[in-house]
Amino acid sequence: MAPPLAGVVRLAAASRVLVLSLSILARLLFRPYDTSASLNPPCLSSSPSAAASPPTNLSAAVSSLAVWDGVHFARPAECGYEYEQSFAFLPLLPASIALLARSLFAPLVPVLGYRAVLVLSGYVLNNVTFVAAAAYFYRLSVLILKDRKAAYRASVLFCFNPASVFYSSLYSESLYALFSLGGLFYLFSGANTVAAIMLALSGSARSNGALNAGYFCFQALLQAYDAAVRKKRPLFAIQALVAAALRTIFIFLPFFAFQAYAYLNICVHGSSEELRPWCKTKVPLLYGFIQSHYWGVGFLRYFQVKQLPNFLLASPVLSLAVYSIIHYTKMLHQLFRTTSIHMQIITALEESSVESCKGSDDMTVSRSELSTGSTNKTQGNSKVKQRKSIATEKASATFHDTMSANQNIKEIQDEGSILLLPFVLHLAFMTFTAFFVMHVQVSTRFLSASPPIYWAAAHILASPNCSSRRWSYLICVYFIAYILLGSLLFSNFYPFT
């Protein structure tokens, strides 16, 4: 493991220890505002696992760690999807913690009870996956920014982000971050199959994970342009667009499959005598109905005077998101003014090809080492070294050809790349949705897995001028204050975000 990546992993692990320690300390020092989390009515269709719940103090203490939405994630894991509103909580986290509770942590069930083990499984899973997500965040940042120091600074900010408490509790943020950031890393590294699988899983964790399909569409547009304009091969362009369409469908598939499952359970096999309103619509999507009917989500519906404190609570992350969008939009505008889009597309595709080539060469060398080591060690080792040398020379030659072909735009690429464009568009859409459509206070965690926010903040921290120093101080205060506030308020069932 490279030293910067190892440093990010250590920091991510340390940040989880810090957040968990603060949360436990807050629970010990303060009484929870709402103690209903400890109430756990039996499942509508009781199962043997659910029945094994010894009423011990330790079991109750662990179970009470499921607060706010954590209660709604634990319930489907224990009892399945019993109620209409439960389908707002997508199945990846409940399924994952149920699997862990029935396998790795199964010996603890007789001691703690099944529900407590589910909660414990969720905490362990989310803290471990956050560390992996931080590693992918750093690797993705290196690919896009082409600057290891900037990538490291941004990764440190991600490790201690304002929504940290959600990444260390029974929420789906950690799983979403792992699969979205990991999927984007593999996408821009050329491993499209792995990327598609991981991005599809991100859509099983959070509904906005389906938006990650847009990155495949962006990649397909670059490839189609290159095939049609530069290589004069229109069939290759069509092939790229069709492949992207299939991958997009694959990424959306888990979300719509879950909606179909909800339709079958409620509209077809439901016990209600009268069909629910959403069952009668032309496109019966339960998720949108739940958001509107139960939580009042909709365009401008949250614009009320009584919600001003929540707008203030979300204002730091929204301000940082808007700054990130403006900063990278200006950078891209300057880039397109000084370098043609044609050259930017060619460079982006060639660099992606180099990354893919490096990965395949490393795998070839590794497989060769494994296959030749057991039969003829001396001869095998020489062949492996020869193959490794050839593979390295090929990758090096390809890389140098790429660099020599793009010497005129090297300086501009140090400041930005066309690969920033989909990230900016994605963040802009999510910021608009968070401000105008959603419960605005959710913005802190909704935008917390968006890389451009941390890239822009890292840029401010590295800037030497006096104005940037003041903003750097405010950013640090904001990150620290929200970690402390989140650990205190959220853990004790007080409103946070």
UniProtKB/TrEMBL annotation:
<comment type="similarity">
    <text>Belongs to the PIGV family.</text>
</comment>
<feature type="region of interest" description="Disordered">
    <location>
        <begin position="358"/>
        <end position="387"/>
    </location>
</feature>
<keyword id="KW-0256">Endoplasmic reticulum</keyword>
<dbReference type="GO" id="GO:0005789">
    <property type="term" value="C:endoplasmic reticulum membrane"/>
</dbReference>
<feature type="compositionally biased region" description="Polar residues">
    <location>
        <begin position="363"/>
        <end position="383"/>
    </location>
</feature>
<dbReference type="InterPro" id="IPR007315">
    <property type="entry name" value="PIG-V/Gpi18"/>
</dbReference>
<keyword id="KW-0808">Transferase</keyword>
<dbReference type="GO" id="GO:0016757">
    <property type="term" value="F:glycosyltransferase activity"/>
</dbReference>
<keyword id="KW-0472">Membrane</keyword>
<protein>
    <recommendedName>
        <fullName>GPI mannosyltransferase 2</fullName>
        <ecNumber>2.4.1.-</ecNumber>
    </recommendedName>
</protein>
<dbReference type="Pfam" id="PF04188">
    <property type="entry name" value="Mannosyl_trans2"/>
</dbReference>
<keyword id="KW-0812">Transmembrane</keyword>
<feature type="transmembrane region" description="Helical">
    <location>
        <begin position="117"/>
        <end position="138"/>
    </location>
</feature>
<feature type="transmembrane region" description="Helical">
    <location>
        <begin position="240"/>
        <end position="264"/>
    </location>
</feature>
<keyword id="KW-1133">Transmembrane helix</keyword>
<comment type="pathway">
    <text>Glycolipid biosynthesis; glycosylphosphatidylinositol-anchor biosynthesis.</text>
</comment>
<feature type="transmembrane region" description="Helical">
    <location>
        <begin position="176"/>
        <end position="201"/>
    </location>
</feature>
<dbReference type="GO" id="GO:0006506">
    <property type="term" value="P:GPI anchor biosynthetic process"/>
</dbReference>
<feature type="transmembrane region" description="Helical">
    <location>
        <begin position="418"/>
        <end position="438"/>
    </location>
</feature>
<feature type="transmembrane region" description="Helical">
    <location>
        <begin position="310"/>
        <end position="328"/>
    </location>
</feature>
<feature type="transmembrane region" description="Helical">
    <location>
        <begin position="471"/>
        <end position="494"/>
    </location>
</feature>
<keyword id="KW-0337">GPI-anchor biosynthesis</keyword>
<feature type="transmembrane region" description="Helical">
    <location>
        <begin position="150"/>
        <end position="170"/>
    </location>
</feature>
<comment type="function">
    <text>Mannosyltransferase involved in glycosylphosphatidylinositol-anchor biosynthesis.</text>
</comment>
<feature type="transmembrane region" description="Helical">
    <location>
        <begin position="87"/>
        <end position="105"/>
    </location>
</feature>
<keyword id="KW-0328">Glycosyltransferase</keyword>
